[in-house]
From TrEMBL:
Name of the protein: DNA topoisomerase
PANTHER family: DNA TOPOISOMERASE 3-ALPHA (PTHR11390:SF21), PROKARYOTIC DNA TOPOISOMERASE (PTHR11390)
A GO MF term: DNA binding
Enzyme class: isomerase
Biological source species: Levilactobacillus brevis (Lactobacillus brevis)
GO BP term (any one): DNA recombination
Record-linked InterPro entries: Topo_IA, Topo_IA_2, Topo_IA_cen, Topo_IA_cen_sub1, Topo_IA_cen_sub2, Topo_IA_cen_sub3, Topo_IA_core_domain, Topo_IA_DNA-bd_dom
Top-rank taxon: Bacteria
Length: 705
């Protein structure tokens, strides 16, 4: 009997093989004889998605024309996918050969939506593939012990049918929305003189809408004064605040209210409760992205890339694209065993206070990955870059806090009235056990209260305090990850960072400013949201309701085809609306600059593509706007016509293109006024970047000066 285990990526082979027995290499594959499965087991791996959906032009020649509104919406009768590239083809052929020769297949891709798709799209294309595969491994554990338990509890493939169908559906929806609405926007905006690239998506556009709305709120904010009544206990200067707080926006109203209150506060209740605060939850990707953005100003993509590296290449942290904040017993056991090593590597003097698994952190789950935690391989921090060290340190420390005690405090709330309905309140707190807060940056100040008794009459002073309304906080990248994405159910941990970086770097709809990574919409971003106003792309409630229905598909309570039909209907309505709809766009189009290309003579070959020729691009309707470029439109090679105040003549460009360096320049003046004669040249450095270079001898004389 021979069984093939198909994993999502090659890094899963090693722990899975070790879970089943002693791995051996045979003809480039890993094999194990498994007593549990009573078979010789061969491991093969995909490398994520091996297939991608065809583009519009592959379905229909007419769909090639991006400027034809009449053919929208484009809805393929049946979606087709093709192999992604040569590497994917090689992977597929290897998998196909193994599966064809095997008696049975166990699907062991990641236990999530896209994991189902990755496995099923391969199996469906291998004759007999689906029939041979009746059992599914759902494993989220990092240890051989945990993986073995998952192998002991294989589930029928049919049980995962709905999740797989939802994954395939999600990919088709992204295609339908993305392809069609990008064209709707592109065509209609071009007619109105806008030439920026249009991109639309069910997560991307709502995210942009949040950033634009926040920007509008800040721009239109007007500071306004307000008044509050404040009470102070005369005997001991203890203050009482109205609860719920009451703000008067008109001073006279505040004064009238103040005139009605008496100078005696009657204490209605004194309550003291002991509070236990648990250590913070373990990190999932989104929470770590929020934490790192706030603390160090890292982008979501930077954090994701770092964690991918720590996971894939160094194997010191768990699978990064996780939504979970809990782990399983097997992980808890090795984390506990390694506690001292983790603490030592972080140089943290910490003893284990709670050795038991608490249900808030440790659960038995079969869906998805564990929270972000270290693996049992303890890292050598000196081998890590600063960013890796910080992210790794944050994950390890958060994990260690799980073994710390609760923070315990007594909280006292004193409530009183002044004869009106309004309640006034004073609160105090007394920490009894700092617990985990001793190792984390958390405020733990005691606030002492004077002792009050129920029914006590307290002489008070009343005063009117003026405050000013505060401008709303600008959304930062960290806030998107820690608050807004979860709040509006937008995207998944696997996709969020990619969407944010596309909005910033690819579409240029959002700009990032400052170390806090504050988000500012560009004029294109503002226009984009105005353009889609009133559709499911910008209405967050509507977007959420679509997501809620999608959840029914995942649970198997709705046919994917029916959902797709409804989405196509909505899409068709949008296409029909926008045929004539002309939404108000707040920002006028930029004047469209046209350029004339003047090739250099004699001809100079482009140093980048080696196909085109270099020439000067001169703007026909803007003054002093010219630069060098390649005649091949898609090449994008360019050089300025001036660099640090020195004119780049066509002769210098010719020298750069042919030798990557110009002759030594007769005379160059530095910004400090120093004159260099025959000591400086332009070079095309790495990635053909224009830079200065100094003659080596010149540098030496400079030092001896
Ligand atoms: Zn070129």
């Amino acid at each position: 009997m021979s069984i093939v285990v198909l994993t999502e990526k090659s890094s899963q082979i090693d722990p899975y093989a070790k879970a089943l027995g002693t791995p051996k290499k045979k003809q480039g594959s890993v094999w194990v004889h498994s007593a549990l499965l009573n078979a010789d087991v061969q491991f093969v791996a995909a490398s994520g998605h091996l297939f991608k959906l065809d583009g519009p032009e592959d379905y229909n020649d007419a769909w090639r024309d991006r400027s034809n509104y009449e053919q929208l919406p484009m809805v393929p009768q049946k979606f087709k996918a093709r192999i992604k590239d040569a590497r994917a083809r090689a992977s597929f052929n290897r998998i196909k050969q193994a599966i064809t020769a095997a008696d049975e297949v166990i699907l062991a891709t990641d236990p999530d939506q896209q994991g189902e798709v990755i496995g099923r799209e391969i199996l469906q294309r291998i004759p007999g593939g689906m029939e041979k595969c009746q059992r599914r491994l759902l494993n989220s554990s990092l240890t051989a012990k945990g993986a073995l338990r998952s192998f002991e509890n294989l589930v029928p493939m049919a049980k995962q049918e709905h999740l797989g169908a939802a994954g395939f559906l999600q990919n088709r929806l992204n295609w339908l929305i993305g392809m069609n609405l990008s064209r709707v926007g592109g065509i209609q905006l071009k007619k109105r003189g806008y030439y920026f690239p249009v991109a639309a998506g069910t997560v991307k556009t709502p995210t942009l809408a949040l950033v634009v709305a926040n920007d509008q709120e800040i721009k239109h904010f007007k500071e306004a004064p307000y008044w509050q009544i404040e009470l102070t206990d005369q005997a001991n200067q203890q203050r009482f605040k109205a609860q719920p707080s009451r703000h008067f926006s008109i001073e006279d109203e505040a004064k009238q209210a103040l005139a009605q209150v008496t100078d005696t506060l009657t204490i209605k209740s004194v309550d003291q409760v002991e509070q236990h605060r648990l250590p913070p939850k373990l990190f999932n990707l989104t929470a770590l992205q929020g934490y790192a953005a706030k603390k160090w100003g890292y982008s979501g993509t930077e954090v994701l890339e770092t964690m991918e590296h720590l996971y894939k290449d160094l194997a010191i942290t768990s699978y990064p694209r996780t939504e979970s904040t809990v782990i399983e017993d097997a992980e808890f056991d090795y984390l506990k065993a390694n506690f001292n090593d983790y603490a030592a590597t972080l140089n943290l003097k910490m003893a284990m206070q709670v050795p038991d698994a608490r249900p808030e952190f440790v659960k038995t789950t079969t869906d998805g990955h564990p929270a972000l935690i270290p693996t049992d391989k303890v890292a050598d921090l000196s081998q890590l870059t600063e960013r890796e060290r910080r992210c790794y340190g944050a994950v390890v420390k958060r994990t260690l806090l799980m073994f710390a005690g609760d923070c315990v405090l007594d909280k006292t709330v004193v409530k009183g009235t002044l004869g009106t309905e309004q309640i006034y309140e004073a609160t105090g707190q007394q920490f009894k056990d700092l617990g985990w807060t001793e190792f984390d940056v958390v405020k733990t100040e005691n606030r002492e209260l004077p002792s009050y008794q129920q029914g006590q009459q307290v002489k008070i002073e009343t005063s009117l305090v003026e405050g000013k309304t505060k401008v709303p906080q600008r959304i930062t990248e960290g806030m998107l990850f820690s608050k807004l994405f979860p709040k509006y159910n937008l995207g998944t941990p696997a996709t969020r960072a990619g969407i944010v970086s596309e909005l910033i770097e690819k579409n240029h709809y959002i700009e990032v400013k400052g170390k806090r990574r504050e988000l500012y919409p560009t004029s294109e971003g503002i226009n984009m949201v105005a353009f889609w106003q009133g559709t499911l792309l910008t209405d967050l409630k509507l977007a959420k309701s679509w997501q809620d229905i999608f959840d029914k598909v995942i649970q198997g309570n709705m046919q994917p085809d029916r959902y797709q039909e409804q989405m196509v209907e909505a899409l068709t309505d949008i296409v029909a609306d926008y045929r004539t709809k002309k939404p108000d766009l707040p920002i006028a189009p930029k004047p469209h600059t046209s350029y004339e290309f003047k090739p250099l003579t004699p001809a100079v070959k482009c140093p980048k593509c080696h196909r085109g020729e270099l020439g000067l691009l001169v703007a026909t309707n803007a003054k002093n706007n010219q630069f060098y470029a390649c005649s091949q439109k898609k090449c994008h090679f360019s050089l300025p016509n001036k660099y640090s105040g020195i004119a780049l003549t066509s002769e210098l460009v010719r020298q750069l293109a042919t030798k990557k360096q110009t002759d030594w320049l007769p005379e160059v003046k530095s910004s400090q006024g120093k004159v260099y004669r025959n000591q400086v040249a332009f070079i095309l450095a790495e990635k053909l970047k224009l830079q200065w270079t100094f003659k080596q001898t010149a540098k030496k004389t400079e030092r001896t000066d």
